[in-house]
Amino acid sequence: MRAKHQRLVLGLLALAAIAGAALLALSALKDEAAFFYAPGDVAAAAPPLDRAVRLGGMVEAGSLRRQADGVSVKFAVTDGKARVPVTFRGVTPDLFREGSGVVAEGRFNRDGSFAADNLLAKHDERYMPPQVAGKMHKSESIEQ
Amino acid sequence: MIAELGLAALWLAAAFAVVQVLLAWGAAKASRVTGERAAIAGVELMRALRLTTLVQGLLALLSFLLLIVLFIRSDMSVVLVAENSHSMKPLMYKVAGAWGNHEGSMLLWVTILAMSGAGVALFERRLASGTLAATLGAQAAIGLGFYAFLAFASNPFVRLNPAVTEGQGLNPLLQDPGLAFHPPTLYLGYVGLSVAFSFAVGALVMRDVGPAFAKAMRPWVLAAWIFLTIGITAGSYWAYYELGWGGWWFWDPVENASLMPWLAATALLHSVTVLATRDGLRAWTLMLAVVAFSMSMIGTFLVRSGILVSVHAFAVDPTRGTFILGLLGLYIGGALALFGARAGTVTQGSTFQLVSREGALVLNNLLLSVILGVVFIGTLYPLAAQAAGVQLSIGAPFFNKAIAPVALVLVIATAVGPLLRWRRDDLNVLLGKLLWPASAAGVTFAVMFVMTGATHLLTVLGLTFAAGLAVASVLPLGRRKLLRTPLHIWGMVAAHLGMAVSLAGMAADSAFTLERLAAIKVGDDVTVGPYRVILADVRPTIGPNWSGLEARLSVRRGDGRPFDLFPQQRFFSTPPTNTNEAAIRTMVDGQLYTVLGQGDDQGRWQLRLWWKPFVTLIWLGGGLIALGGLLALIGRVRRERRQADAETYA
Amino acid sequence: MRRLLIWTPLALFAIVFAVVASGLLKPGDRLVHSAMVGKPLPQLNLPPITSDKPGIATADFGRGKPRLLNIFASWCIPCIAEAPQLMKLRKAGVEIDAVAIRDTHDGVQAFLQQYGDPYARIGDDKASTAQLALGSSGVPETFVIDAHGRITYQHIGDVREEHIPELLAQLEKAK
């Protein structure tokens, strides 16, 4: 390789690497981006059934029920406009309780309910997931 | 009074930073003029510049130490202390409280920045004085931006009038020895990269890009990289045992924020070696130095502005975000513009053949850049989507899918690179050297494939590549006398071996982990993998500032000796929070991970149990990588010093 | 070609910077606006919650004068914050009705005693049905109902000092 050309080739390789990263990322994004839903969005338009999504809102007061097996819970997520029933099997996160903000990862069932694989509760009292904060705006948590 | 002193020290440090920029400008100018008088003026200016840099560093340190004193004394007349501390808190967490919040952490940031500038001024003797002056000037210019940020947008020393009697505590999740020292470690890494950035800017300004500049920069890159490696490894282990989810990496924006500078620093570390040893990859190394620090600033920005959704909680404040973004635009944009204007004048370094050490390092750099690009896009894509009005999140499936294949190719490059000679090598000789690694990989693949089948192809490949890399990484020691092998070679071997170990741990965790979730009464038992776990007892327990429930699990593996584990649920009163404390038993061949969940009205308790074979290898590998960095750093610094001494006496 | 390559990083950075800046400076509309604005008030028929005030019915609105309809609850902290502003509006001659969300007789009574009582009528909405019918997603919210019984304006969140002029202007328009 001629000296003068080598640098150009290296520069082009770097550019190709960046383009490759972008292509790789975009192709994976098409399949794996989890869209975020609030219960109100679900009521407005049917959500997709075949892909992982996130559902965010508040755990509706009075809706939390433990199941007979001791490790499953059912509850409803609400954004004040609509509610979605959610089922989850596992140990609920530390800060998960009625009235707390929650983001559930999982899939929608055909009947409009949501099967969660994972629950993300807010980490401290001051924190609310911005996506939830975007859809809720006032305190409804005083009511126990 | 202490708070006012702290603020005064901060302002003084900022004033010294201004002086430092001016002196640097003068010294850089003087270095271009020839003549005896100019030379004397240059020497005087350099002496003043070094002294100013040192004083600025000490003033920033003083300011930060005064903040720590305020926290130790629980001075509730200071807003920051009242909001983040509590008089009942253990001393260690009072100290850690000083940086466990936005203002304090930014003060720590700028303190490390100023101190590392002082370090350069003290220890750097071999670099041309003009380049050194420009470097110190750039370092002070970065510092000025952050002093302004502290003074105008996040002053840590604001008084509270009237003072409160008790503070609001610190997030109990953050009351953990690992996490208390986690942010400072990461910051040392982030800010260490600022030195590399300043060196790059200095070299561009003075048009002095060559091996001398690379050798001056290398120890700083190495040191920053070591801290980043430790920080990421420790952070991963913290998330693993503290969050109680059994996972060790969540591809969370806050985690990505620390991973991106690490990836860039890893690439930089390798390209700077090419520049120092072979005088190649000049412009590329400059670019990487800029990118690495950009990633540090973007990391700080992402965490501190709260614009991305994260499971790790930090304050959300758009004003501060805007300020940091402004600084980011100024410094990074400025450096890239400088790069655009000057890179054309950087002449071509020495060239090399495709099959050579340089070739492998270029491949390493390209692959690391691709991974960095993917992480970057995955982290920021939700933000771009939000600008377009779509709410979405990017999680582990995306990153695993996009990164795993590239990472596996990177493993091959890592295995092959050290076996190649500089400049040019013979492909046939290389293939001969690869016999042993390839056989190790082949055997592993066969065994794993038979054991687990094609369903876990990625994890099978992970273990296969880990085995190959492990063998290949120790080959460079093969024909050497071990005692006379330079320390930096040992460092490289340890770091590459660490990568293999870590990869093996990751693959083993995803291939062999067994999980059990059950609700059982006291006295009942449940099995997970080879373990039989009896819930012996659940009873109340108390700690210094929490109360909780503690389960006693009596565990037995086969016919082995039984042992007890004590997973807890803790309730903190200030602020009201509860946490799960996992109990973990580390065995030679893995970890048993137990979490106590809620009780129900029938007297049953939720237990979540994992048997994770060889999971500890992940962090062991991380430690090995950091150790490798440390060995290389010591080796390089000693060699540099010897050469500097030789020059002095010659 | 080389010149182009050298400037590529800056161009890429500029794009990323623009995206991030737009995300930061325009954090998106964080409020849920009611689809009911501009439409007639939905059918409401709420019983009284306190002993001395009537409940709320759709027929009470649109009688030639605009009115405010305040969604509140005694358990809601922002509602306490906005109480003085509502009192000011009342003193300025504005007629205010309220829907109490998931509340009790005693709770509302105590709230009014402590923070002032600007309301003419208070409807009891135990199940949040009226709230949902209005398209309100939280507490507190304040609607302007015009002289013809149509919803013309929705204020989301607590009414602060600086919101009063806008509310008065909306009430003026709604005549």
UniProtKB/TrEMBL annotation, chain B:
<keyword id="KW-1133">Transmembrane helix</keyword>
<feature type="domain" description="Cytochrome c-type biogenesis protein CcmF C-terminal">
    <location>
        <begin position="325"/>
        <end position="636"/>
    </location>
</feature>
<comment type="similarity">
    <text>Belongs to the CcmF/CycK/Ccl1/NrfE/CcsA family.</text>
</comment>
<feature type="transmembrane region" description="Helical">
    <location>
        <begin position="49"/>
        <end position="72"/>
    </location>
</feature>
<feature type="transmembrane region" description="Helical">
    <location>
        <begin position="283"/>
        <end position="303"/>
    </location>
</feature>
<dbReference type="Pfam" id="PF16327">
    <property type="entry name" value="CcmF_C"/>
</dbReference>
<feature type="transmembrane region" description="Helical">
    <location>
        <begin position="130"/>
        <end position="152"/>
    </location>
</feature>
<feature type="transmembrane region" description="Helical">
    <location>
        <begin position="403"/>
        <end position="422"/>
    </location>
</feature>
<feature type="transmembrane region" description="Helical">
    <location>
        <begin position="106"/>
        <end position="123"/>
    </location>
</feature>
<dbReference type="InterPro" id="IPR003567">
    <property type="entry name" value="Cyt_c_biogenesis"/>
</dbReference>
<keyword id="KW-0472">Membrane</keyword>
<protein>
    <submittedName>
        <fullName>Cytochrome c-type biogenesis protein CcmF</fullName>
    </submittedName>
</protein>
<keyword id="KW-0812">Transmembrane</keyword>
<dbReference type="GO" id="GO:0005886">
    <property type="term" value="C:plasma membrane"/>
</dbReference>
<feature type="transmembrane region" description="Helical">
    <location>
        <begin position="362"/>
        <end position="383"/>
    </location>
</feature>
<feature type="transmembrane region" description="Helical">
    <location>
        <begin position="259"/>
        <end position="276"/>
    </location>
</feature>
<comment type="function">
    <text>Required for the biogenesis of c-type cytochromes. Possible subunit of a heme lyase.</text>
</comment>
<feature type="transmembrane region" description="Helical">
    <location>
        <begin position="434"/>
        <end position="451"/>
    </location>
</feature>
<dbReference type="Pfam" id="PF01578">
    <property type="entry name" value="Cytochrom_C_asm"/>
</dbReference>
<keyword id="KW-1003">Cell membrane</keyword>
<keyword id="KW-0201">Cytochrome c-type biogenesis</keyword>
<feature type="transmembrane region" description="Helical">
    <location>
        <begin position="614"/>
        <end position="634"/>
    </location>
</feature>
UniProtKB/TrEMBL annotation, chain C:
<dbReference type="InterPro" id="IPR013766">
    <property type="entry name" value="Thioredoxin_domain"/>
</dbReference>
<dbReference type="GO" id="GO:0030313">
    <property type="term" value="C:cell envelope"/>
</dbReference>
<keyword id="KW-0201">Cytochrome c-type biogenesis</keyword>
<keyword id="KW-1015">Disulfide bond</keyword>
<dbReference type="GO" id="GO:0016491">
    <property type="term" value="F:oxidoreductase activity"/>
</dbReference>
<dbReference type="InterPro" id="IPR036249">
    <property type="entry name" value="Thioredoxin-like_sf"/>
</dbReference>
<dbReference type="GO" id="GO:0017004">
    <property type="term" value="P:cytochrome complex assembly"/>
</dbReference>
<dbReference type="InterPro" id="IPR050553">
    <property type="entry name" value="Thioredoxin_ResA/DsbE_sf"/>
</dbReference>
<protein>
    <submittedName>
        <fullName>Cytochrome c biogenesis protein CcmG/thiol:disulfide interchange protein DsbE</fullName>
    </submittedName>
</protein>
<dbReference type="InterPro" id="IPR013740">
    <property type="entry name" value="Redoxin"/>
</dbReference>
<dbReference type="Pfam" id="PF08534">
    <property type="entry name" value="Redoxin"/>
</dbReference>
<feature type="domain" description="Thioredoxin">
    <location>
        <begin position="35"/>
        <end position="173"/>
    </location>
</feature>
<keyword id="KW-0676">Redox-active center</keyword>
